[in-house]
Amino acid sequence: MSRSGVIALAICTAVLLVLPWIIGNEFYVNMASQVLIYALFALSINMMLGYGGMVSLGHAGYLGIAGYACILATTAGYDQLTAAIFAVALSTAAAALFGVLSLRAPGLGFIMITLALGQIVWGIAYRANELTGGDNGIRHPARPMPFGIDIRDAPSFYYFTLVVFAIALFCIWRFSRSPFGASLMGTRDQPRRMRMLGHNVWLVRFLTFVMAGFWGSVAGVLYVYYNLFLSPHAISLQQSAEILLMAILGGASTLTGPIVGAAIITLVKNVVSSYVERWNTLLGVIFVVVIVFMPYGLVPGCKQLWARLSSRKNRKVAGATASEPAQ
Amino acid sequence: MSSPALEVSGLNKRFGGLPATRNVSLSVMPGERRLIIGPNGAGKTTLFNLVTGDLTADAGSVKLFGRELLGMRTQDRVHLGLARTYQILTLFPREPLVHNVVLSLLGLDARRWNPWSILTRNRDLYDNARAALERVGLGDSADRIVHETSYGERRRLELAMALAHKPKVLLLDEPLAGLSQGERQTVRALLDTIPRDVTIVMIEHDMDTALGFAERITLLHYGEVIVEGTRAEVVADPRTREVYLGD
Amino acid sequence: MQWQFWIIQTLNSVAFGGLLFMLSSGFSLIFGLMRIPNLAHGAFFMLGAYFGYSLLIRGLNFWPTALAAGLGVGLIGVALERFILRRLAGNEQGQVLVTLGISFIIADICLVAWTGDPMPLAAPQALRPPLRVAGYAFPTYRLVVLGISLVAALGLYLLMERTRLGAMIRAGVDDMEMARGVGIPVSRLFTTVFLLGATLAGIGGVLGGPILNAYPGLDTDMLPLALIVVILGGAGSLLGAFVGSFIVGFIYNFGIALVPDLAYFVLFLPMVLVLVFLPQGLFGRVQI
């Protein structure tokens, strides 16, 4: 990592660690927790989108499967850890099944199949009244107490979420720098070539799909711990679209893009919703605007701007015009 | 009498109503330099695609050192020692040259399944990649991004990626296409340095360069083998003239 | 009177299948030709229903309403194609996502314009009394919906097989490069097909109104069904859309009637089977 990257990371870490003290207000600390949870969703979907070139419109399904599984297991009497592990395992297994189905048709078919699968999960949640409470949703009894620590109040829950998020981010960061990550990016750019170099393109995509489902499931359990409630509204197509948009808005080709996107969308949604009911329209408009005018997202755009500004500054200092203009 | 490195028997492929490959048979011996020629549309690239598995054959057989390839996935054929370059460059344009070769090396390396280790810490992969680039004269350009290199350099990169596998059979699809006279000589010289444990089958239009390279030539037309033999035989054969001058 | 139940359900299924055909034929055409899964198609259907409602309560007759509402939706589709999708030519992923964004905007605007309550559309007076045959009572309107969808299917078939426009569409579906090469005006063709597809969806919305009503969420209820029809029947194939629509219509309807909690799950299984064994769909001509 570059020197400026390390500095930026250090600053962000410091800010994140003292956040609850800086923001006294519980409401905003809770929002910070929300941002972290959605950032994890966005990071997980970006494993497929940014690194793999695969657009999934059914990602909220993992929120649903993991979330409902966690609630049902906890209400059935299992302890929190078992319930959480069961939820994530079940949801990841579903990801494996969905992956096999979705990858039957890479490209546009993939989008359609993941959408249909996501809607089927939603439809089951909506209709299986006995199991899921249908439209009314079901409650999660109480927040867990990991290692006996009480995380019911806002700052404690924030730190809990931060720890989980940090672990996930580290894993996904290593993923992006790993040989597997490089293979995945290769299959995104030139799948035929990769086959001819000996790579098993299908398997690379499938494993990525399952890993993305795993982290999405973890985020789903966090979501349920945060809200202590789950209803089909949370696993609608709109939710899948929002998560996708977070990754695209921030910049799918970067690691930090989805985090930035999640922060922006979550904050805008919360602020807008208190004034006006037209969040859906705004979401749609942002979608269209971003895709038409800013397809690479904000983070790459800002990096470019930064590079241009600093090279201009250097040139002014050097006085000469020998170097080529920045890309 | 040793067995062939690549043996194609009765290979057939139709696209809808159109026969693209008609009963093609040929045998390439280990270490041989075979040239496949023929007018546009003769089915040369289709033949390569059938051998690599990019296309599924309707009938016939393709054997690599006795192993039947048809029905096998492309990546498995690569693992058996098959390599190929493409007529239209398929590189990773936003990556450095060395990364392109590393991806090629990973294709045969179990480490490609590792989602945890940092790729750049695998020094041996990068050293091997630089060595492969060195062998094609791109050693100094190893860290440059592909889209900043010239077309000639990219052709050599394509070659380096294929050679990095130390393949048994190398299929070259028009390796000289679009190159200037000087670049052609460079690439031709490169091809001469490839050791004899690599069998080479090449499609080429540039007769001057290619004829000097080839030991045996197969002439294809409308998907069929018309003439096959040594360079002298094929050049002298009246059918060759017919195919190229039309009838 | 078990028979009555099965007959009514069967009729509901084929009527619903007919509606699905109105919805998915357009989707399949657009996808086959332009390689864009139009995720706003469910919203088009819903918008047609809402337009229909507004025209009907102003006293317009049912059939002109269906046509007018359909065309209204068609024009919106044309605007979407010309002003947004065309700007993203070559960026297929972007085009799909943009249609998704548009679907949210349309759905929200409908919510504002028509509120959150379900709006019933009245079937034409003449078709309200049931048809009595051999002592059984058949829901007349549903039979008519089936009839209309069959007529539409026939019309589309003739369009595709017997007209120049149809020939151009088929050529474009088979091989776009070749079609451009032989001078087919691809831009105009895209706009025409989008108009046709959106109009069909809009008309379908009006036709479905007396059965389904117009309500917020109609779009997200219908869109996945259209997707499943196309996955089952095969993209770019009118026959596939036809057969797929009735298969899904039956499964969905009987599913809701017999195992309401598991209706969506029952839809899941055939989709899985097709994807695993026949990824092209039953009649697929286009690689999805």
**Measured distance between first and last alpha carbons of chain B:** 39 Å
Report the average pLDDT across residues of chain A: 88
Which series of helices and strands of chain B comes N to C? EEEHEEHEHHHEHEHEEHH
Spatial strand arrangement across the major sheet of chain B: 6-7-8-3-9-10
CATH topology of the largest domain in chain B: Rossmann fold
Q: Any guess at the CATH architecture of chain A?
A: Orthogonal Bundle
The CATH class name of the largest domain in chain B reads Alpha Beta
The N- to C-terminal Cα distance of chain A equals 21 Å
What fraction of residues of chain A sit in β-strands?
A: under 5%
Supply Rg of chain B: 18 Å
Q: How would you name the CATH homologous superfamily of the largest domain in chain B?
A: P-loop containing nucleotide triphosphate hydrolases
Oligomeric form: heterotrimer
Protein structure class of chain B: alpha/beta
* CATH topology title of chain A: ABC transporter involved in vitamin B12 uptake, BtuC
CATH architecture of the largest domain in chain B: 3-Layer(aba) Sandwich
Which of globular, elongated, flat, extended, rod-shaped describes the shape of chain B? Answer: globular
Q: What is the total domain count of chain A?
A: 1
In one word, what is the shape of chain A?
globular
